[in-house]
Every structure is written in C-alpha cells, then in structure tokens.
Amino acid sequence: MKIQDIQTIQELLSTPKKIAIIPHRSPDGDAMGSTLGLYHFLLKNNQYPVVISPNEFPDFLAWMPGSETVKVFEKDKKKCTNLLEEAELIFTLDFNALHRVGEMEKVLEKLVVPFVMIDHHQSPDDYAAVTYSDTNFGSTCEMLYHFIAALGKTADIDKTIGTCIYTGILTDSGSFRFPKTTGTTHRIIADLIDLGVENSEIPALLYDNSSYDRLQLLGRALQNMKILMEHKTTYTTLTQQELDHFNYIKGDTEGIVNYGLSIKGIVFTAIFIENAEEKIIKISLRSQGDFDVNLFAREHFNGGGHRNAAGGKSEASMEETVMKFENLVSKLKT
Ligand code: 5GP
Ligand code: MN
C-alpha cells in the first residue's frame, strides 16, 4: 500500500464513524471473509460498521462469525438505503466496478462520502478515494491481512478476524493450489493457525457439508459435460428445470465449474447456469495457464474477473448461448 493511502485511512479511522462495508453481488467465501473480517476489525477499533450485501449470501457461509449481522439489500431496500445514506465511509471489497452490486449501484452512485476499495481483480474503476488494488494477490482476504498490517494493527487480528481471512484465502486459492498462492500466503495462514483458527474445521464446514440433492446436481452437471478435445475445452450446462429438480439452493453450484479442468489436457472450461427469474444464463469460466478468461468474458459475455477465473452472463437462450460459445471456441488457439 502507498504511504499516502495508509495515512488517509488512518485519518479516516481516527474518529468513530458509521461505516458501510460492501461485497459484490452473490458474495463468495472471499467476499464474505473480507467484509466480515474488516467488520470485526473496525468494531475492535471503535467504529460503527455494518456489512450490506447486495443479495443473499449462500447458506454454506452462514456459519461465518458475524454473518447474522449482515444486511441484505434485496431483502430490505429501504433500511439498507438508509444505512448507505447515513454512512460516513464506504468500503467496497472483492470487486472493482460499481455495477457488480446490481441494483444497489443506483444508491452508491449518489453518495458523496469517501470510498475505499480493496480488491484483486483486473482494471479497477476510478470511484474510490483510496484504491488498494493488486492483481498479484490470490484473494481480497490476503490483502485485508496486509491492509491491517499496514495500519500497524497486526496485533488486532484475533481468532475471529483470522477465521474470516482464512476462509477467503482458502476458497479463492482453490485450497492453496492456484498459482497466486505464495510463501507469504502460507506464512499468513501459519500465523492464523497459531491464533487458533480452526484449519481443519473450516474446510469441513465449507466442503463436507453438502446435501444429497447438491451431490445429485453435481452428478447431472458432470453427465451434461461436453468435451471439445481439439480445443482443449470442456463445458457443461444446468437448466432451471434441472436446478428445480434437485431443489437448488444458492451456493449449490459453487465449484462445479472446476471439474471441467480436471480432465487431462483440458485448459479451458465453462459452466452455463440458467436463471429463469433474472432471465439470464450465468456463465463461469476457468482456465489453466496463459489463456485469459477475463478477456474472453469481457469481450463476449459482458463479464470479467481474473486471467484464470472469470464470469459473465448472456441474455440469449441456453441453446443460443452454448452455440455462441462453441463457435468462439472453434476459433480459439488454446
Ligand atoms: P465465478 O465464476 O466464481 O462466479 O467468478 C469467477 C471470477 O469472475 C470472480 O472473481 C468474479 O468476481 C468474477 N466474475 C464472475 N461473474 C462476473 C461478472 O458477471 N462480471 C464481472 N466483471 N466479473 C465476474
Ligand atoms: Mn476474491
């Protein structure tokens, strides 16, 4: 972090303030981990923080400390709008473009108080007074650890804050496998374990907490998988009908996309998930190596993300969306 930014933050936090902390829409482990980690840190520092999520967070994160205090904009627009309008400082975590909060964007755009962005995605927009953005980090949670350290407050990181940070590092690194996992990442993890963070229990809460329906849904997605061997690509689909059949709840499709890369020789994979209510096909993209799915998502599917993990959406039908994808892949040099 730049010295000047650290000073700005220290200045902003020198008096108690009402602070809104915002993750991206459909928050994942890193978005929830970083917002809740910051929430507990700010509480400890005599602030009045509140986490406001644009929409509901998945059930499999409901065990996280402080999740019961999270306000959900889509569930209570009036109250959340009031909280946002009253806030004297806004943190936006794990995203870097205001459209990632969906409908809440309209409220945020009108606010005149300072914004602080902490994020690890490419090409940040220019809306924050302090932009702590670095694509070298595998997670926003790892950045939060450095952020707290830069404020000279490492000693504030306790088991609760550590649990939140651990969760985001774990989930965004694919359990410490993805290429941005460094020695420093592991040293932070080691420190968190020394603070009492339950490094065996947290992965179990996240990954061994499935329902029978969810596993059957995974089975269906695996059955639906197509392989385009010539282009080292796989993809799969889940229609709304299939989701309904397996009593889909939010979070059930988390991680399914990764299976597409587990086949030998595959470097690019996608999952297309129908959302009848929003009338879109939600797309998740993953790659291994140099193929840049962030660019692919930006150019073709109104999305973005990172080089090896990105997402987007399509307003066309499932058939048309898949056809467009196959067409694009046939022109790729993967
Ligand atoms: P996922 O596939 O797990 O939903 O997302 C993978 C990555 O892509 C995440 O870092 C996420 O923030 C980003 N991402 C997912 N969907 C979108 C989208 O619609 N727009 C943008 N800009 N980024 C997305
Ligand atoms: Mn993240």
Model description:
With 334 residues, this protein is α/β, with parallel strands linked by helices. It folds into 2 domains: 3-206, inorganic pyrophosphatase (n-terminal core) (Alpha-Beta Complex); 212-330, Diaminopimelate Epimerase, Chain A, domain 1 (Roll). The chain has 12 helices and 12 strands. The strands form 2 sheets. The chain has a 6-stranded parallel beta sheet with strand order 3-2-1-4-5-6, sandwiched between helices. Helix 2 links the parallel strand 1 and strand 2 (48-53). Helix 2 runs antiparallel to helix 6 (159-172), helix 5 packs antiparallel against helix 6 (159-172) and helix 6 (159-172) packs antiparallel against helix 7. The two termini are 36 Å apart. 41% of the residues are buried. The mean pLDDT is 97. Manganese (II) ion (MN) binds at residues 30, 94, 120, 139-140, 172.
Q: Main traits of this protein?
A:
334 residues; binds manganese (II) ion; inorganic pyrophosphatase (n-terminal core); alpha/beta; single chain; six-stranded mixed sheet; globular; Diaminopimelate Epimerase, Chain A, domain 1; six-stranded parallel sheet
